[in-house]
Design a protein that fits this description.
211 residues; DNA_glycosylase; hydrolase; disordered N terminus; Adenine_glyco; mainly alpha; DNA-3-methyladenine glycosylase activity
């Protein structure tokens, strides 16, 4: 899950969420920064069921490791340009000259291990098409129930399903996909709903009910 910001002028609820100036309740990480607020309100937790979309989110979650989500989100347009829209077929064909190009691109995160992992993961995604595909693999680990956190501190950072999916992705050739990173992916694409029970976004994905 994206990081929490520092102090804010907004009033806190009993859950630890914040009541923003528009009267809506949001978790601390999404309450202050306009970019993060818009991402929370319109995108985070909505279902993603296309190969390119899931591959992009796997890639960005990997790049976020050790960094803030705000940093990755601000760089997302540059990432999309640098990685050809995260088209798995195109990225799977990258060679050393592309790695060098990406390492020279100051508009993205220039981490060679993560860049090379993204290329490997694209190749793994392409290879999975013969066994149902990346989307089917990822969504097959959707849990029977979703968390219903009443307080910020109740929001989990991993689950048995994220650990199992991390193992399945690793066996399929993916890297930078540990249980915590995978749980963040599951949150982002709607496989679990970890919106606080007093959030206006709870149950809005169409995947889970509000209760």
């Amino acid at each position: 899950m994206p990081e929490k910001p520092g102090k804010t002028r907004f009033a806190a609820t009993e859950s630890g969420a914040l009541v923003c100036e528009d009267g809506l309740v949001r978790p601390p990480w999404a309450a202050v920064d306009p970019l993060l607020r818009d991402y929370y309100d319109t995108e985070w937790g909505m279902p993603v069921r296309d190969e390119r979309g899931v591959f992009e989110r796997i890639s960005l979650e990997a790049f976020q490791a050790g960094l803030s989500w705000a940093t990755i989100l601000r760089k997302r347009p540059a990432f999309r340009t640098a990685f050809d829209g995260f088209d798995p077929d195109t990225v799977a064909g990258y060679g050393e000259e592309d790695v060098e190009r990406l390492m020279g691109d100051a508009s993205i995160v220039r981490n060679e291990r993560k860049i090379r992992a993204t290329v490997r993961n694209a190749r793994a995604a392409v290879a999975l098409r013969g066994a149902g595909g990346l989307v089917d693999l990822v969504w097959s680990f959707r849990p029977e129930r979703t968390p219903a956190p009443a307080r910020v501190e109740d929001i989990p950072t991993e689950s048995p399903e994220s650990a199992a999916l991390a193992g399945a992705l690793r066996r399929a050739g993916f890297s930078f996909t540990g249980p915590t990173t995978v749980f963040a992916l599951m949150e982002a694409i709607g496989m679990v709903d970890t919106h606080l029970v007093d959030s206006h976004r709870r149950g809005t994905s169409g995947v889970w009910t509000r209760s």
